[in-house]
Predict the structure.
Amino acid sequence: RRVHGGSFWCRMKMWRSLRAIASRSAFSVNGRGYASTSSKQPMQVKLFRALWGVTDDWQSCFPRFKDCGFTGIEQGLFFLSAAEKEKLKVMLPAFQMEYIAMIFTTGNTVQEHMKSLKDQIKECLPYKPLLINVHSGKDSWSRANSKQYLTEALAIEKSIGIPMGHETHRGRIFYNPWTTRELLDEFPDLKLTCDYSHWVTVCERLIDTEMDILKLCAERALHIHARIGYDQGPQVPDPRAKEFQPALEAFNRWWKMIWDAQAQKGFSTSTATPEYGPHPYLQHLPYTNVPVANLSDIVEHEAARYRDVFDAHVRSNSTKK
């Protein structure tokens, strides 16, 4: 699958992305680590491109990412070779791309996961991350273990001065809505990377039934992973297919709650990554191993759709004031 190549959105929508980028103010951090501004300008959106599933040479991909309106890259150094890490460090400033770090804590004990967190934070700091997205801990931990880990993680976040969002991800501390609610109540400064695709899989349903928890999560949302999941998996086979429209509309509802909460807090910018991934997230046909859709096409389509929904929502809110 080629990442480089023309697309309707990249050709026709680039002007809008460039105009939006030019008008954005810098990401600032207040005492609680939230992006905020005193400006009364409408909140803008910054879209980040994951390198997950990108198989072409980055030298050809980065210009295309810029053309498609992505303002930065979200990537974990954890999965890169030494040569790729050095290449990324050079290419980010060369293409004027911002960076969101991804960290994947490892081990069994709290101490092992904390060491992993510290080591990966130290490694990502030279890349000057805008924020850090963390896959934290284990779903099998006791509540006491989770609290111990989060107490230390929040202290680290305060010490480095870079906001950290803990992702709502299967296999991790925040793998379900109810555990997440209890920990958000326990830790007022805790922030999330909201990837609800995992929750609809864990719960095996669209989670409008948990509206009180979604509202709480919106209040704590630092970053969004904008991937549509459904009751049988964290990634619909093709979000453009009308049979997945109910899931798409549900995710739009939940993201709007986040945007409203961020705007209320004074965020100048809302960040999101349309983090669609390759097989096994992207389904393949049995026996042939042929993907049911082109991954880069899906990412670009969903980036464009997300921006359109965001812009329309912000405009609608502006007219109500």
Confidence is low (pLDDT under 50) at residues 1-6, 11-34. The CA atoms of residues 230 and 247 lie 6 Å apart. Residues 295-320 form the longest helix (26 residues).
